[in-house]
Amino acid sequence: MVGKDSSDYRPRRALPADDEVDLPEQQPVPPQLPARQPSTPADDHTDVRPGDDDDTAFGFPAYSEAEPDQPKPLYRDEVPGQSSFDDRTRIQQPAATPRVRLPDSRHPDEDVLDDLGDIDEDGPRLGQRGRMALLIGAVAAVVVLGLAIGYAVIGRPNGPSANPPSPSNSPSTTETNTTGTPEQPRGELLTTEMLVAAADAKPIDGARDWKVSRTLTKTDNNSPKAVCLGTAIEGLPTAREAMIQTLESNGKEPPAILHLASAYGSPEEAAQAYALIAKAVGNCTVKDRGAWLYTARVVTGLGDQSLGVVVKLAGGEQPEYRSLILSRTGRVLNVVDVAKLSDDVPVDKAVRTVAAAVNRQCTTAGGACAKQTADKAGPPPVGDQPGYLSGGDLPTPGDQAGPWFADEPRNLTGPQHDSTCETADLSKVAGGRAVSRTFLVDGDSGDFGLDEYMVTLKSEAEAKKLARKFVDDWKSCEKRKITPKVEDPVKIKGTGAKDAKINGWVSEIKVPTSNANSRTFRVGVAWVGPKVVYTFLSPTKNLDITDGDWKRVTVRAAERATQVN
Asked: Among 180-189, 286-295, 386-395, whose mean pLDDT is lowest?
């Protein structure tokens, strides 16, 4: 049989030898035939011992029938594309019949000649020259027959060959892809060398020792998943190849890395997958964990497409941060998730780690390599409603809080929710159009909720003027009304899409509801270009977010506004 390398060849059992032809003692020597090249032995499906073609010593079989989408290796005993001229139907040498040696006094054709005795019973016999001519003809016939048999054995489709075809150029007829696209052999593009390695992790933390903890060359629904990507994405193209590698480090609160590399049929298909995965990140959710997009960075120079976000997870004794990088180079899409407790790993450090893997992929993947990578402030990928906040933009308001959910953005037809300090009615702003969206928390039946309002005006000057009216109302509220207590507005800044500058303020206002009780509201306002965003949160005793997170939410609302015209 044929093994996995040339040293495993075992010779084919020889075909049955031709029966010898008993020729006369004076037979002439046949012409010398050209020397044939030695043939390469081939598998005749014999001499197979249990375990000869099994890699169970390494923990898995060489090939599993449970994997129909994986082409069978051509060195297996199951010969693909077997011709009809196989071992069962090959041309065999006919069984020879015993041949009687004729005496010299009787010619081989004597029986035929005897049948003509009625014509010339005493006709002359053939002479010595005639017998010699017939003998030479018989020898020539035997030689021709031998050559024909040899040609049939050497030239049959599955017979021995001096130059057997390699697996890469052999006809792959064992498996058929019903989609009409030829199935790619595993490993055609991705290799484990293209994954993030221990040496690549040094930019994340060079003081720690890194090692690969797990490598998967085949993925399924039970494989580890990156943050925000734990559920199926509708319409996501199926990757032709996918590999996962995880890395761990030592020390206190050690960071860890998960790298998923997926290869698609074309750069266009990979770009489609990138867009859908990016949208899932923009609307990030994690089952049973409060997850939100803590920061976002615009990443450049990391292949053809890239982005970076930091996701903050609640629900544990201390917060967990996940620095998530997406990068596409040609046909290959990378998702790298860097996890750390207490504080986050800066996106630029994670980008440098991913860049090392991208540079090992780009040539084979047919895409751009990592060159002069950089990151800067900017919005995260668009969420479920481009231009508006998504559930992934909002922090968990409490340990027992359910996930956020929202209605569809709608035109504002009446006064907005406010703290009673505001005097502007966004539904009546001259020359503007106001849209609102309301967010609630699943399982809460109280008054907790967040309202987002966006007004588009004719110019940036008008937007700035409207935003300043809000902050002036807050500052003057205690003078105009006796009961409210207003915290001094705090300035906020940010950067939107295309480097758009964001400016605004946030504040906290307490409004008494009775002699002993009061209600607190968080408010924020910002302008970017001709747009104004106003945010309003009504906390309760059990549901609220921090001052710092409220700043981030208001800036994020303005960032989102820059993602649409």
From this structure: 180-189
